[in-house]
Protein backbone atom coordinates (compact mmCIF):
# COMPACT_ATOMS: atom_id res chain seq x y z
CA UNK A 1 0.00 0.00 0.00
CA UNK A 2 1.44 3.42 -0.98
CA UNK A 3 -0.55 5.63 1.40
CA UNK A 4 -2.41 7.41 -1.43
CA UNK A 5 -6.04 6.72 -2.24
CA UNK A 6 -6.75 5.32 -5.62
CA UNK A 7 -8.22 7.96 -7.99
CA UNK A 8 -7.17 10.86 -5.73
CA UNK A 9 -5.42 12.63 -8.61
CA UNK A 10 -1.90 12.73 -9.89
CA UNK A 11 0.94 11.49 -7.73
CA UNK A 12 2.66 14.66 -6.44
CA UNK A 13 5.87 12.68 -5.99
CA UNK A 14 5.99 11.40 -9.56
CA UNK A 15 8.86 12.71 -11.70
CA UNK A 16 7.87 15.46 -14.13
CA UNK A 17 8.85 15.02 -17.72
CA UNK A 18 10.56 17.96 -19.46
CA UNK A 19 7.57 18.83 -21.66
CA UNK A 20 5.38 19.56 -18.62
CA UNK A 21 7.98 21.93 -17.14
CA UNK A 22 8.26 23.86 -20.43
CA UNK A 23 4.48 24.18 -20.73
CA UNK A 24 4.18 25.42 -17.13
CA UNK A 25 6.94 28.03 -17.48
CA UNK A 26 5.45 29.30 -20.76
CA UNK A 27 2.01 29.56 -19.16
CA UNK A 28 3.47 31.51 -16.22
CA UNK A 29 5.23 33.99 -18.51
CA UNK A 30 2.08 34.54 -20.55
CA UNK A 31 -0.03 35.10 -17.44
CA UNK A 32 2.46 37.59 -15.99
CA UNK A 33 2.58 39.56 -19.24
CA UNK A 34 -1.20 39.63 -19.63
CA UNK A 35 -1.78 40.84 -16.07
CA UNK A 36 0.45 43.92 -16.41
CA UNK A 37 -1.49 47.15 -17.02
CA UNK A 38 -1.27 48.59 -20.51
CA UNK A 39 -0.63 52.11 -19.19
CA UNK A 40 2.14 52.80 -16.73
CA UNK A 41 0.58 54.25 -13.61
CA UNK A 42 2.15 54.71 -10.19
CA UNK A 43 0.53 52.71 -7.38
CA UNK A 44 -0.21 55.95 -5.51
CA UNK A 45 -2.07 57.55 -8.43
CA UNK A 46 -4.02 54.33 -8.99
CA UNK A 47 -5.06 54.35 -5.29
CA UNK A 48 -6.01 58.02 -5.50
CA UNK A 49 -8.12 57.39 -8.60
CA UNK A 50 -9.91 54.48 -6.90
CA UNK A 51 -10.46 56.48 -3.72
CA UNK A 52 -11.96 59.34 -5.71
CA UNK A 53 -14.41 56.94 -7.33
CA UNK A 54 -15.58 55.20 -4.13
CA UNK A 55 -17.29 57.52 -1.62
CA UNK A 56 -15.68 57.74 1.82
CA UNK A 57 -18.70 56.08 3.48
CA UNK A 58 -18.08 52.87 1.53
CA UNK A 59 -14.28 52.66 1.47
CA UNK A 60 -13.73 52.95 5.22
CA UNK A 61 -13.83 50.23 7.87
CA UNK A 62 -15.71 52.39 10.41
CA UNK A 63 -16.71 56.00 11.06
CA UNK A 64 -13.46 56.71 12.92
CA UNK A 65 -11.30 55.40 10.06
CA UNK A 66 -9.00 58.16 8.78
CA UNK A 67 -10.10 60.68 11.40
CA UNK A 68 -8.42 62.28 14.37
CA UNK A 69 -10.26 62.31 17.68
CA UNK A 70 -11.00 65.84 18.88
CA UNK A 71 -13.02 66.79 21.96
CA UNK A 72 -16.34 68.46 21.24
CA UNK A 73 -18.39 70.19 23.89
CA UNK A 74 -21.74 71.64 22.85
CA UNK A 75 -24.21 73.99 24.48
CA UNK A 76 -27.67 72.47 25.02
CA UNK A 77 -29.23 74.56 22.25
CA UNK A 78 -26.54 73.45 19.78
CA UNK A 79 -26.89 69.79 20.77
CA UNK A 80 -30.64 69.98 20.21
CA UNK A 81 -30.15 71.61 16.79
CA UNK A 82 -27.61 68.90 15.91
CA UNK A 83 -30.16 66.20 16.79
CA UNK A 84 -32.81 67.95 14.64
CA UNK A 85 -30.36 68.24 11.73
CA UNK A 86 -29.51 64.55 11.99
CA UNK A 87 -33.20 63.56 11.85
CA UNK A 88 -33.82 65.90 8.92
CA UNK A 89 -30.89 64.54 6.93
CA UNK A 90 -31.85 60.94 7.70
CA UNK A 91 -35.29 61.72 6.26
CA UNK A 92 -33.71 63.28 3.17
CA UNK A 93 -31.39 60.32 2.59
CA UNK A 94 -33.89 57.73 3.81
CA UNK A 95 -30.90 56.22 5.62
CA UNK A 96 -29.10 56.49 8.96
CA UNK A 97 -26.61 59.35 9.20
CA UNK A 98 -23.67 58.75 11.52
CA UNK A 99 -23.28 61.43 14.16
CA UNK A 100 -19.54 61.45 13.44
CA UNK A 101 -20.17 62.04 9.72
CA UNK A 102 -22.77 64.71 10.50
CA UNK A 103 -20.41 66.58 12.80
CA UNK A 104 -17.61 66.59 10.27
CA UNK A 105 -19.99 67.70 7.49
CA UNK A 106 -21.23 70.52 9.73
CA UNK A 107 -17.61 71.48 10.40
CA UNK A 108 -16.78 71.49 6.68
CA UNK A 109 -19.89 73.56 5.89
CA UNK A 110 -18.80 76.04 8.57
CA UNK A 111 -15.31 76.20 7.07
CA UNK A 112 -16.90 77.05 3.73
CA UNK A 113 -18.95 79.86 5.33
CA UNK A 114 -16.62 81.71 7.70
CA UNK A 115 -18.73 84.87 7.57
CA UNK A 116 -21.59 82.98 9.25
CA UNK A 117 -19.15 81.48 11.76
CA UNK A 118 -17.91 84.99 12.49
CA UNK A 119 -21.50 86.04 13.22
CA UNK A 120 -21.93 83.26 15.80
CA UNK A 121 -18.62 84.12 17.42
CA UNK A 122 -19.65 87.79 17.64
CA UNK A 123 -22.87 86.70 19.40
CA UNK A 124 -20.67 84.98 21.98
CA UNK A 125 -18.65 88.15 22.51
CA UNK A 126 -15.75 87.82 20.10
CA UNK A 127 -14.63 91.16 18.71
CA UNK A 128 -15.95 93.11 21.70
CA UNK A 129 -13.61 95.56 23.30
CA UNK A 130 -13.90 97.27 26.64
CA UNK A 131 -11.73 100.25 25.87
CA UNK A 132 -13.01 103.74 26.62
Descriptive overview:
This protein is mostly helical and 132 residues long. Helix content is 57%, strand content 0%. Residues 19-37 have low confidence and may be disordered.
Name a few traits of the molecule.
mainly alpha, 132 residues, extended
List the helices and strands and how they pair.
Elements: H1 18-35, H2 43-53, H3 56-59, H4 76-93, H5 99-112, H6 114-123
Short overview:
The chain has 132 residues and is an all-alpha fold.
So what's the oligomer here? single chain
Rounded average pLDDT: 78
Radius of gyration: 31 Å
Q: Please count the helical segments.
A: 6
Please identify the structural class as seen in this structure. mainly alpha
The N- and C-terminal alpha carbons lie at a distance of 108 Å
Q: What ranges have pLDDT less than 50 throughout 5 or more consecutive residues?
A: 19-37
The helix content, as a percent range, equals 55-70%
Shape: extended
Amino acid sequence: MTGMKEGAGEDPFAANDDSTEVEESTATETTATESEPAETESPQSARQQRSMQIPYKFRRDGVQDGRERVPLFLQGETKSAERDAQRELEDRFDDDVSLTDLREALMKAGLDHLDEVEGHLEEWGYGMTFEE
